[in-house]
Write a structure and sequence with these properties.
Elements (H helix, E strand, L loop, with lengths): L13 H26 L4 E5 L5 E5 L5 H12 L3 H38 L9 H87 L3 E6 L4 E6 L1
Length: about 230
């Protein structure tokens, strides 16, 4: 009896499917090798299994790159330019979509700005006007809070500067008073020294005068201790 025909359809059993794939892959690779040897043909096979495994056969007399170069030359197509053209088209479409989206956002923001300044409000209904009023009230509260914060910060900064200046002024006044007190003490000491030196000098001169004039006698007395010269 001859072997019956096998119905060509997907094998549902995963194990049987993998076994059949392996057998037929080996058979195809064997036929490709025979064509290469018998007919001096250039054959390339690329296969991926259902599980994603990669299998390849390339004739020994040609490389994969040379095979694809020969394919492009023979068919007059450029695989890489087509690929880049598709990629460029995809990027261009994304950029156009992004541009339209940003343009719509910009238009909406400009309209909101004009509305907050009192323009473009004629077409708004009561709910939209109430929503706009609530947004403006919220913005006004935020602006006032920020203003008070800035005023408080600047006031605290100026107070610190004033305190620093007052401390520096007090320190300068204290240093000046200290130097003036020291100078007054030096002046008083110098005056006392000068008076003592003058008295000693006068006494020495008087004694020298007595030596040269023995008839003169120094009398000391009186209530206030005054000195007087008299003839002996």
């Amino acid at each position: 009896m001859g072997r019956g025909k096998i119905e060509i359809k997907r094998i549902e059993n995963a194990t049987n499917r993998q076994v059949t794939y392996s057998k037929r892959r080996n058979g195809i690779f064997k036929k490709a090798q025979e064509l290469t040897v018998l007919c001096d043909a250039k054959v390339s096979l690329i296969m991926f299994s259902s599980t994603g495994k990669f299998h390849e056969f390339i004739s020994p007399n040609i490389s994969t790159k040379a095979f694809f170069d020969l394919y492009q030359k023979t068919t007059g197509t450029d695989l890489w330019i087509s690929h880049y053209e598709l990629y460029a088209l995809f990027v261009c479409q994304k950029m156009q979509e992004n541009y339209r989206r940003l343009k719509e956002i910009n238009k909406k923001l400009r309209r909101e700005i004009r509305q907050r300044m009192g323009g473009d409000v004629d077409d708004l209904n009561i709910k939209e006007l109430q929503a706009l009023e609530a947004k403006m009230d919220s913005s006004l509260v935020a602006i006032r809070d920020r203003k008070y914060h800035v005023i408080k910060t600047q006031t605290d900064t100026h107070k610190k500067k004033v305190r620093n200046l007052e401390e520096r002024h007090a320190n300068l006044v204290f240093d000046l008073e200290t130097k003036l007190d020291q100078q007054d003490g030096i002046v008083e000491s110098e005056g006392y020294y000068n008076e003592a030196a003058n008295g000693a000098s006068n006494l020495h001169a008087l004694r020298l005068y007595q030596i040269h004039h023995p008839n003169l006698v120094l009398h000391h007395g009186g209530r206030f201790g005054s000195n007087d010269l008299r003839l002996a």
